């Protein structure tokens, strides 16, 4: 990991700003326009699909540049309060899985859920 940027999501405007920040990070990582669009759309679609950013809960987004040996890419980690049932998370993750190279869901012990989206520019 080279750099990390963390954003807090409180309202729909924050989702728009996050989408732009993810797209810019993808551009800087060397992704083509299609991959920039996919990772940024996956991020905002996840938040919108889970109704995050409505001001009632704390959501954070970490944008991480990846440079692991010869693999270069971008990771977006969305952490939000556990909705209490897994179905909405599974549906939202299923809807965006085609836009990223890897997606992982972690149910954390502090009643939080973490969804990790990874998109590679170069993978060897």
Word description of this protein:
This protein has 124 residues and is of the alpha+beta class. 36% of the residues lie in helices and 36% in strands. The protein is built from 3 helices and 5 strands, in the order βααββαββ. Strands 1-2-3-5-4 form a 5-stranded antiparallel beta sheet, covered by helices on one side.
What key attributes describe this structure?
124 residues, alpha+beta
Mean pLDDT: 89
Q: What is the overall shape?
A: globular
Strand order of the largest sheet: 1-2-3-5-4
Number of helices: 3
Major sheet, described briefly? 5 strands, antiparallel
Q: What is the rounded distance between the termini?
A: 16 Å
Q: What letter string, H or E per element, gives the SSE order?
A: EHHEEHEE
Low-confidence stretches: none
What portion of residues is helical? 25-40%
Per DSSP E runs of 2 or more residues, the count of β-strands stands at: 5
- The computed structural class is alpha+beta
Cα gyration radius (Å): 14 Å
Q: What is the percentage of strand-forming residues?
A: 35-45%
What's the quick description here?
By secondary structure, the chain is α+β, with helices and mostly antiparallel strands. The chain has helices at residues 12-29, 33-49, 87-96; strands at 4-9, 59-68, 71-81, 102-108, 112-122. The model has no long low-confidence stretch (mean pLDDT 89).
Topology:
Blueprint: E1 4-9, H1 12-29, H2 33-49, E2 59-68, E3 71-81, H3 87-96, E4 102-108, E5 112-122
Antiparallel strand pairs: 1-2, 2-3, 3-5, 4-5
């Amino acid at each position: 990991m080279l750099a990390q940027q963390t954003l807090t999501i409180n309202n729909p405007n924050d989702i728009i700003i996050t989408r732009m920040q993810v797209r810019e990070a993808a551009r800087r990582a060397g992704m083509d326009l299609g991959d920039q669009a996919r990772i940024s759309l996956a991020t905002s679609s996840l938040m919108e699909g889970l109704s995050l950013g409505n001001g009632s809960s704390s959501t954070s987004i970490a944008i991480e540049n990846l440079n692991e040996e010869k693999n270069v890419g971008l990771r977006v980690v969305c952490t939000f309060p556990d909705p209490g049932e897994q179905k909405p998370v599974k549906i939202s993750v299923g809807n965006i899985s085609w836009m990223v190279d890897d997606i992982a869901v972690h149910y954390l012990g502090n009643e939080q859920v973490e969804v990790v989206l990874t998109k590679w520019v170069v993978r060897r």
